[in-house]
């Protein structure tokens, strides 16, 4: 099989990172670019994107195929059928650590074809059990990027935090 005929690695990497998250007790989330081919509750879409909790506890009947990810999840207490084409998945990561992998964002459809507009989303709160708003920047190149924790392996302890003296404003300290 030559390179142009090879199947995409994206569904395999998504399944592998899902398994890694669940094996380590983390909550896997996927960031999805929403277009007319994505079946999600449109009222939870923000700026053409949605983040979905795909953990065992948040889904029912999860199927992660080579072409689609499908499951049932509760949004606002109502069960909803979710169907996401794998090519629309922009990232999969562990909610607790942020570790995971980002993929090149799919090209957005033309305005006339896109049935989700940035201002379409409602102001309802997003339930923690199914979805959460996380703005993501579209990838500017075609490479797969691995998300890593900002903490090193042996850096399990955080330095003690001291509150600022009263009457002063907090400030950021640049650490190189």
Task: Give the gist of this structure.
This is ClpXP protease specificity-enhancing factor. By secondary structure, this protein is mainly β.
The biggest beta sheet reads: 6 strands, antiparallel
What integer value in Å does the Rg equal? 19 Å
Distance between the termini: 47 Å
Summed up, the helix count is 1
Percentage of residues in strands = 25-35%
Helix and strand composition category: mainly beta
Mean pLDDT: 76
**CATH topology assignment of the domain at 7-100:** SH3 type barrels
Helix content: under 10%
Helices and strands, in order, run as: HEEEEEEEEE
Strand order of the largest sheet: 8-2-1-6-7-9
The level 1 CATH classification of the domain at 7-100 is Mainly Beta
Contiguous low-pLDDT stretches (5 residues minimum) are 111-142
CATH arch. level architecture of the domain at 7-100: Roll
What's the count of strands?
9
CATH superfamily of the domain at 7-100: SspB-like
GO molecular function: peptidase activity
InterPro entries: SspB, SspB-like_sf
Pfam families: SspB
Keywords: Hydrolase, Protease
Search tags:
mainly beta; SH3 type barrels; 9 strands; protease; six-stranded antiparallel beta sheet; 8% helix; single chain; 176 residues
């Amino acid at each position: 099989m030559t390179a142009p005929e090879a199947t995409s690695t994206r569904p395999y990497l998504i399944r592998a990172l899902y398994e890694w998250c669940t094996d380590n007790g983390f909550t896997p989330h996927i960031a999805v670019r929403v277009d007319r081919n994505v079946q999600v509750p449109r009222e939870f879409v923000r700026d053409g994107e949605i983040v979905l909790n795909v953990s065992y506890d948040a889904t029912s009947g999860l199927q992660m195929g080579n072409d689609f990810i499908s499951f049932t999840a509760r949004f606002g207490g109502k069960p909803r059928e979710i169907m996401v084409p794998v090519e629309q998945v922009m990232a999969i990561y562990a909610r607790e650590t942020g570790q995971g992998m980002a993929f090149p964002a799919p090209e957005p459809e033309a305005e006339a074809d896109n049935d989700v507009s940035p201002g379409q989303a409602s102001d309802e709160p997003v339930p923690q059990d199914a979805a959460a708003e996380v703005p993501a920047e579209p990838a500017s190149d075609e490479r797969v990027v691995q998300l890593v924790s900002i903490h090193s392996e042996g850096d399990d302890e955080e330095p003690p935090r001291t509150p600022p003296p009263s009457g002063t404003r907090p400030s950021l300290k640049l650490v190189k």
